[in-house]
Specification:
This protein is of the alpha/beta class. The protein has 7 helices and 9 strands. It has a 7-stranded parallel sheet with strand order 3-2-1-4-5-6-9, with helices on both faces.
């Protein structure tokens, strides 16, 4: 049994990633988000191997979420280790740099960067570290965080936070190598999600959340042994 954790799983890419993972009967999925009603909708679609945890990653008391994750794994899985962690939760504020406050900066970095670090550090003792199996951390970045990629007005802080995710991905891949924990980052371009539509109501994206979710699920399961410290760009445009 493979134990996978997906954050930001109540909608968009996270929702579709969790659902795609759950299509494999050998994968037990723990879906985490702040919106319980939407999490319940997800569980209805795959009640046997998706369990949900309502938790706001802005909450600094990560001991609570760690205890719930381990209790779920011990209760519902034949394997008591974490095999996959997909750090997908995040926030996007489309507002020019001069019109953003320090609170806006702090909120985006807290959710897009620091909450991922807190979760990785809190869950570190429970990752599968055996040489034959190991585990895989997949951080969800953005093409906005890729050096040299096109940038958009209003996304300066969001892009900076995603750039930080890519940098920490490369560093943790080195630090965790002896633990058999591989760390990679997937950087989507524009994806048609609720967050995208809210930020860009007049625009559309050619990639759907379903397509991206399937890609991330497949990568997290099948590429753990093939990639480490890689910053993967997934976009139709550079």
């Amino acid at each position: 049994m493979i134990n996978a954790i997906v954050t930001g799983a109540s909608s968009g890419i996270g929702f579709q990633t969790a659902l795609a993972l759950a299509q494999n009967e050998e994968i037990f999925v723990i879906a985490i988000a702040r919106n319980r009603d939407k999490l319940l909708e997800l569980k209805k679609l795959s009640p046997k191997n998706i369990n949900i945890i309502q938790f706001d990653l802005e909450n600094k008391s990560f001991e609570l979420i760690v205890n719930q994750i381990i209790e779920n794994i011990n209760s519902f899985s034949t394997n008591n280790k974490i095999n996959i962690l997909i750090n997908n939760a995040g926030i996007l504020t489309n507002r020019t740099f001069l019109n953003q406050t320090e609170e806006d900066w702090a909120k985006q970095f807290d959710l897009n960067f620091f909450s991922n670090l807190r979760l990785i550090k809190s869950l570190y003792p429970y990752f599968e570290k055996s040489k034959d199996i190991g585990s895989h951390i997949v951080n969800i970045g953005s093409m906005g965080g890729i050096q040299g990629a096109a940038k958009f007005s209003g996304l300066s802080i969001y892009s900076a936070s995603k750039s930080a995710i890519n940098s920490i991905t490369e560093s943790l891949a080195v630090e965790f190598l002896d633990d058999n924990i591989h760390v990679n980052s997937i950087n989507p371009g524009s994806v048609m999600t609720e967050m995208f539509k809210k930020a860009f109501p007049k625009n559309s994206a050619e990639i759907s959340a379903l397509q991206m979710g399937k890609y991330i699920a497949d990568f997290s399961v099948n590429s753990a042994k093939l990639f480490n410290g890689r910053i993967i760009e997934v976009s139709l445009f550079s």
